[in-house]
Amino acid sequence: MKSVFKSLLLIAILLISACAKPVPEDKREYIGYWHSKNMTITISADGRLVYHRVRMKQGAKYTTKVDGPIKSYQGDELVVGVLSLTTTFKVSRPPYQEDGQWFMVVDGVTLKLIGNRLNKSMKINL
Question: How many domains is the chain built from?
C-alpha cells in the first residue's frame, strides 16, 4: 500500500511540475512558430515549447523532437523540461526584425517567424 501511495505522490508531483508558466513580458517576442528548412520551434504564450529538427548524416536521417514546458530563461539559453529531464537551447540571437520579417537564431540555426504571435492555438505541421 505504501508503494502505491508513493507512486501516486510521485505522479502528482510530476504533473504539477510539468505545468508551464506563461512567457514573461520581457520574453514575449519569443512567442510564435519559428521555421527554417530543417528545424521548427513553436513557443506558446502559456510557456510551452515544441521543437523538431531533422539532420542528415552519412545518408541517414536523424530526427529530434522536444515538447515541454519552458523551465527557465538563463541568459541566452532556454531550458525546457521537467525536474532534471531538461534540454537547453542556445539562443545566439534573440528575436530581431529585418526587412519587415522576424528572425531568431537558436543552436546556430536562423529561424523565421511564421504567422501571428497572438494565435495561441497554432497548429504544427511537421
Answer: 1
Interacting residues of 62 by C-beta distance below 8 A, sequence separation 6+? 54, 55, 56
Q: How many CA atoms lie within 13 Å of 78's alpha carbon, on the beta-carbon side? A: 28
Gyration radius from the chain CA atoms? 17
How is residue 38 written as a grid cell?
530543417
Domain assignment of residue 43, yes or no: yes
Q: What is the DSSP letter of 23?
A: P
Q: What domain range includes position 12?
A: 2-114
Q: What is the pTM of this model?
A: 0.77
63: its cell numbers: 530526427
How confident is the model at residue 115, as a pLDDT? 82
